[in-house]
Structure formats: C-alpha cells, structure tokens
Amino acid sequence: MTHSSDKLNFLHQAVQLTQNMLAMAKQKQWNELPEIEKKRQILLESIFPLDEDSPEIESQATVLQTLIDTNNELIAHCQEGKQSLQLQMRNAKFTHKAVTAYQSN
Q1: CA–CA separation, 103 vs 62, rounded Å?
Q2: Which helix (H) or strand (E) covers residue 36, if one does?
Q3: Residue 16 maps to which CATH number?
Q4: pTM of the prediction?
Q5: Mean pLDDT, the chain cut into blocks of 10 residues (105 residues total)
C-alpha cells in the first residue's frame, strides 16, 4: 500500500510530467507525448484513491488542483494542434486534387 507521503510525492511527479507534456505541446513535439503520458498514467493509478483521513490531504488537494489546471491547459494545446493538423490535411487534399486536375488536362 502506498503511504500518503508517497502519494504526495507521486502527485508532484505527475505535475512535473504534465508540465513537461505542456511544454512539448507548445513546441509541437507531439511524438514524445504518448510515452510520457504512459508514465504519468502509471503514477496516477498508484495515487488513487486518496485517503481522506490523511494528514497530507490538504497538500494533496492543492497539488491535485495544480495538476488539473495544467492538464486542462495541455488539453487545450492538444486540441489546437489537432485542429491545425486537420486544416493541414484539408489543404493537402485540396492541393492534391488541384495537382491531379492540372495533370489530367
């Protein structure tokens, strides 16, 4: 069983990984995100459930809120990246159709 101090430490590690993921998303380094996400998921699975009677519950709640806020920012950047990629794919399709039409004439 994981102790509350370990859980707090794991929460801090999860925040750090999430901040790293956010930095990568801002730099459009998408390829590295899945590996870090797997590490983060393992940490989070070892954290929950939190013990509400833990003497560190307030610290855990504060760190957890930071994790949630950072994760929400990460999600927003990933959604922007997804929309950008979709636009690029539409433009590439349009360009391909135009080239194909030009070549067939």
Answers
A1: 61
A2: helix 33-47
A3: 1.20.58.380
A4: 0.79
A5: 83 97 94 95 92 90 96 94 84 74 75
Q: Return the pLDDT at 5.
A: 86
Tokens coding 67: 């994790």
Number of domains observed in the structure of the chain = 1
Name 40's Cβ contacts closer than 8 Å, sequence gap at least 6. Answer: 14, 17, 18, 21
Predicted confidence at residue 1, as pLDDT, reads: 55
Distances (CA, A) of 71 to 16, 22, 64, 85, 100: 11, 8, 10, 21, 43
Amino acid 26: pLDDT: 93
For the four alpha carbons of 53, 58, 64 and 65, in that order, the dihedral sign comes to positive
**Rg (alpha carbons) of the chain, rounded to whole number:** 21
Domain with 37 in it: 4-104
